[in-house]
């Protein structure tokens, strides 16, 4: 019996390891859930073309082979046709992140299957990359030139690491014939954030700021270990709608792309399965408020619940718990979309039972709702969310700051002017807590700005969400101007 049992175990293990070719499985074989189009979208969204490859402008294909496992992941990823080593490594990195395969079927059962796939690197205009910096040349009118020809009058050096991330001051030189003299530089800013990232690591925001300490261009938030949390694009200190968010495993969780009059937001699950496609239209050219329309929604296993804006969803999302016992929980939300807009009754239930809500929508417009904390009374509301407000409004806040802010003598003597940027939380009682210095001026101005901000505590009307008072993070610039 022992020998027979051993032989049976060996046979089962051997059968489990069998890998089939595409012609050996039933119709079609292994395929990405949602189709090849969504796989290619995933690959192109997540590929980070190595900076050395970008510099050459190279384009081409990396062909990979792999085994699709029963759980939808891939293993034994190998290079079949190489483009160049750095691109090969990047192609393998991204392809391994996609774990939303439908396994091959043989005899009515899922089986392991060998596949091949192509990862495309699109060509780009080449550029000069020397000693860890992208070098650009411009003529006397500051028009870009292909190289350091006789027409070149300006040279710009922008330091970039091997992943294409900024890591030093941008320096602009003026001159000609190889005789260059520094004209000015744009300082590289690395701002350490005391708030915590998704993985509870400290974070840092990197990028470039204008003279008014306002972000400009690409701004990136990183974990302490260097993983990207998000990329946003700023214009004159204001974030545009362009941006990319990343999951802790390194894949893109959401990508926003602008179009005339709004932006599209596409999101993915951690396994690479597409989650949602949402179109957001601005309400007016000057107002960045928008109306969202959901075009498609999928489950983590690839089932499409909303198609062409119509369907019913039951989805889960991690949120902050209302319970003091757990910091986070999962909310399950259920409701219908018609023509891309929320319609009828929507219900949300927190997994830890700490909160429940029920809301009515008509063509995407919130009508009314009711919510209940565990052990609490039911609250009815007609406003979905409301931000904190200083009692009396922004004018009253400005008057309070003007009357109570004292210019530090040291700053006056040194003729220091500008803005101190503070981040803080207005808690559910209207108090100011957790003040962080985002950008300071020094010479006593930072301490004075914090002092006068603390003096506003208790003078705020707290923010509300679904009828409940909540803590809300707030940002405030405090001006120091000499008269």
UniProtKB/TrEMBL annotation:
PROSITE patterns: TONB_CTD. Its main location: membrane. It comes from the Bacteria. Transmembrane segments: none annotated. GO terms for molecular function: energy transducer activity. It is found in: Cell inner membrane. GO terms for cellular component: outer membrane-bounded periplasmic space; plasma membrane protein complex. Residues 1-15 form the signal peptide. It is a single-pass membrane protein. One of its GO terms (biological process) is siderophore transport. Belongs to the TonB family. This is Energy transducer TonB. It comes from Spirosoma foliorum.
């Amino acid at each position: 019996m022992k020998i027979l049992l051993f032989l049976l175990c060996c046979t089962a293990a051997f059968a489990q390891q069998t890998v089939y070719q595409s012609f050996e499985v039933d119709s079609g074989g292994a395929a990405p859930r949602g189709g090849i189009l969504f796989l290619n979208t995933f690959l192109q969204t997540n590929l980070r073309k190595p900076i050395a490859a970008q510099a050459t402008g190279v384009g081409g294909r990396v062909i990979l082979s792999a085994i699709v496992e029963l759980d939808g992941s891939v293993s034994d990823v190998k290079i079949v046709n190489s483009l160049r080593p750095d691109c090969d490594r990047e192609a393998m990195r991204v392809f391994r992140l996609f774990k939303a395969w439908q396994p091959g079927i043989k005899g009515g059962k899922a089986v392991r299957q060998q596949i091949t796939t192509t990862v495309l690197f699109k060509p780009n205009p080449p550029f000069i990359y020397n000693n860890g910096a992208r070098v650009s040349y411009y003529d006397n009118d500051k028009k870009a030139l292909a190289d350091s020809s006789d027409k070149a009058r300006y040279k710009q050096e922008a330091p970039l690491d091997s992943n294409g991330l900024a890591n030093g001051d941008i320096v602009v030189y003026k001159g000609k014939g190889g005789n260059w003299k520094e004209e000015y530089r744009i300082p590289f800013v690395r701002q350490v954030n005391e708030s915590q990232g998704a993985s509870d690591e400290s974070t840092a925001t990197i990028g470039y700021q204008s003279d008014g300490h306002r972000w400009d261009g690409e701004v990136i938030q990183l974990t302490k270990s260097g993983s990207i949390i998000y990329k946003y694009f700023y214009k004159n200190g204001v974030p545009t709608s362009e941006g990319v968010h990343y999951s802790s495993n390194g894949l893109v969780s959401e990508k926003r792309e602008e179009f005339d009059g709004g932006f599209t937001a596409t999101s993915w699950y951690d396994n690479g399965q597409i989650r949602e496609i949402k179109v957001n239209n601005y309400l007016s050219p000057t107002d960045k408020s928008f109306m969202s329309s959901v075009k498609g929604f999928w489950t983590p296993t690839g089932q499409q619940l909303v198609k062409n804006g119509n369907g019913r969803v039951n989805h889960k999302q991690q949120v902050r718990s209302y319970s003091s016992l757990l910091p986070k929980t999962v909310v399950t939300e259920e409701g219908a979309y018609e023509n891309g807009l929320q319609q009828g009754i929507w219900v949300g239930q927190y997994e830890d039972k700490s909160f429940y809500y029920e809301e009515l929508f008509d063509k995407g417009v919130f009508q009314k709702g009711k919510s209940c904390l565990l052990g609490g009374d039911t609250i009815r509301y007609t406003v979905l969310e409301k931000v904190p407000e200083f009692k009396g409004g922004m004018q009253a806040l400005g008057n309070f700051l003007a009357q109570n802010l004292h210019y530090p003598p040291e700053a006056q003597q040194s003729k220091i002017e500008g803005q101190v940027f503070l981040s803080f939380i207005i808690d559910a009682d209207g108090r100011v807590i957790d003040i962080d210095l985002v950008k300071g001026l020094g010479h006593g101005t930072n301490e004075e700005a914090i002092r006068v901000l603390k003096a506003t505590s208790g003078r705020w009307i707290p923010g509300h969400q679904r009828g409940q008072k909540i803590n809300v993070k707030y940002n405030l610039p405090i001006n120091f101007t000499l008269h």
